[in-house]
Design goal:
By secondary structure, the chain is an all-alpha fold. The protein folds into 2 domains: 44 residues, no CATH class; 195 residues, no CATH class. Helices cover 63% and strands 3% of the residues. It has a two-stranded antiparallel sheet with strand order 1-2. Helix 6 runs parallel beside helix 9. The protein is elongated and about 115 Å long. It is a multi-pass membrane protein. Belongs to the YIP1 family. It is found in: Golgi apparatus membrane; Golgi apparatus, cis-Golgi network membrane; Golgi apparatus, trans-Golgi network membrane; Late endosome membrane.
Length: 317
């Protein structure tokens, strides 16, 4: 009897300690054992399982909301350097892959969907425009140097202003034309709900990478053969314009035929004007220096008397 009482006392003591640690726990007596032994079982929240699940879900919702709030607080403002740093967060393999995609356009192969993958960058377009402007100005001056070696009568002087003209022209084209295109597509989205334009950053990225093909074209323009220069220009223009058309076609095909044809024609026309402007301005030859003809006869001084030329019969007496 004493042993049974001591065992019961220890069981009650364990139950009391467990209840002190978990106040929400419920105590139940084991009905399948004799009551004389007084075994007591503790049910760890078996009746409050529904409430526990609600508490877990509420805690997970609070955690997710807190994480979203922290992400919003960590996002820098547009006036900070960290905001624009994300636009240049791209590695070399991605840039080379996007350059390859711009050089080899294929029908049905969208540049935005296959190469940008919702991660447009400004690193590639920025350096492509800078390289194109620099190469354009340098090759334009080299063309005049080579022309002077072939024809010494051509007068050449370094034209450093071409670097400024090339930079302003290329960067204005690479930013203003995509801005106008993006604004027009946004307006057409309001007119026709099925038209879904790209973002402004994606449009700038597409135009920036499309200009890469003009860099080798400008270098090949150093060959002093006019018909070959125009052939290289037409080939580069065709590749670049085809990449733009294939990229914009999934966006404008849901619009009317007139609007789609006019938009794509304008894109190709502006690209052609850029290529022709570069050819005619930066690769024009200077005219030969005009050399003044030598004087046939020197003017006589006024103090030297002239010899009489009148006939003797008409001379005064």
């Amino acid at each position: 009897m004493a042993a049974a009482d001591e065992l019961t006392f220890h069981e009650f003591e364990e139950a009391t300690n467990l209840l002190a640690e978990t106040p929400d726990a419920a105590t139940t007596s084991r009905s399948n054992q004799p009551t004389s032994q007084g075994h007591v079982a503790v049910a760890m929240g078996s009746g409050d399982s529904y409430g526990a699940e609600d508490e877990v879900e509420e805690e997970s919702d609070k955690a997710s909301l807190l994480q979203e709030k922290q992400q919003q607080q960590q996002q820098p403002g547009f006036w900070t350097f960290s905001y624009y740093q994300s636009f240049f967060d791209v590695d070399t393999s991605q840039v080379l892959d996007r350059i390859k995609g711009s050089l080899l356009p294929r029908p049905g192969h969208n540049f935005v969907r296959h190469y940008l993958r919702n991660q447009p960058d400004l690193y590639g377009p920025f350096w492509i425009c800078a390289t194109l402007a620099f190469v354009l100005a340098v090759t334009g001056n080299l063309t005049l140097v080579l022309a002077q070696r072939r024809d010494p009568s051509i007068h050449y002087s370094p034209q450093f202003h071409k670097v400024t003209v090339a930079g302003i022209s290329i960067y204005c084209y690479a930013w203003l034309v995509p801005l106008a295109l993006w604004g027009f597509l946004r307006w057409r989205k309001g007119v026709r709900e099925r038209v879904g334009p790209y973002t402004f950053l994606e449009t700038v990225c597409v135009y920036g990478y499309s200009l890469f093909v003009f860099i080798p074209m400008v270098v090949l323009w150093l060959i002093p053969v006019p018909w070959l220069q125009w052939l290289f220009g037409a080939l580069a223009l065709g590749l670049s314009a085809a990449g733009l058309v294939f990229t914009l076609w999934p966006v404008v095909r849901e619009d009317t035929r007139l609007v789609a044809a006019a938009l794509l024609s304008t894109v190709v026309l502006l690209h052609a004007l850029l290529a022709m402007g570069c050819k005619l301005y930066f690769f024009q030859s200077l005219p030969p220096e005009h050399v003044a003809p030598p004087h046939q006869a020197a003017s006589l001084p006024t103090n030297i008397p002239l010899s009489p030329t009148l006939p003797r019969s008409m001379a005064p007496s």
